[in-house]
């Protein structure tokens, strides 16, 4: 599949997923997982990073930020921007301050390859495992804001917390969930 057709497919799947189509969301995550793994494998190895850790961080960020994608726009540049930030974050944790071009990340998303993709079921299971290992309040806030789409103010009313408390708890929950998923041991 050429890059243009791939982009059209990803865009259609993203729009369907935002309309509540879980199968489309699973297909999108599976396709993006494979593309990210292919694109990051050699780059991560050369930089001394674990490519799978970076891919998992990117997928988590995509999941948590999917409502920021603007309908009708290409998905790859949006994914590339998130991927770039996660790559830079991984370098910073290792004490480096690299510059990663968004264009180079977009190009690697569209490279062809036949590496098997992780199934959507595996991704869903990992996310459920990670969520279940969070403290109850963090899980409630993460689900309300990131999964159910409530604003911090709406979640605060629903959970009987302050909006600031929701934002702080959400930040801690995302950080904890990222750690759990990247270390693979809740």
Tell me about the largest β-sheet.
none
Oligomer: single chain
Distance between the termini: 37 Å
Give average pLDDT, whole number.
76
Q: SSE string, helix = H, strand = E?
A: HHHHHHHHH
Low-confidence stretches: 97-106, 111-120
What integer value in Å does the Rg equal? 17 Å
Tally of DSSP helical segments: 9
Number of E strands? 0
How much of the residues is beta strand, in percent?
under 5%
- From the spread of the alpha carbons, the general shape counts as globular
Alpha-beta content class = mainly alpha
What fraction, in percent, of the residue positions are helical?
A: over 70%
Counting structural domains, the number is: 2
What's the layout of helices and strands?
Layout: H1 3-18, H2 22-47, H3 51-65, H4 75-93, H5 102-109, H6 120-132, H7 136-147, H8 152-159, H9 163-183
Could you walk me through the main structural features you see in this protein, from its secondary elements to its overall organization?
The chain has nine helices and no strands. Helix 3 (51-65) crosses helix 4 and helix 8 (152-159) crosses helix 9 (163-183). By secondary structure, the chain is mainly alpha-helical.
Properties at a glance:
Arc Repressor Mutant, subunit A, 74% helix, 9 helices, 2 domains, mainly alpha
Summarize the structure.
The protein has 186 residues and is an all-alpha fold. It has helices at residues 3-18, 22-47, 51-65, 75-93, 102-109, 120-132, 136-147, 152-159, 163-183.
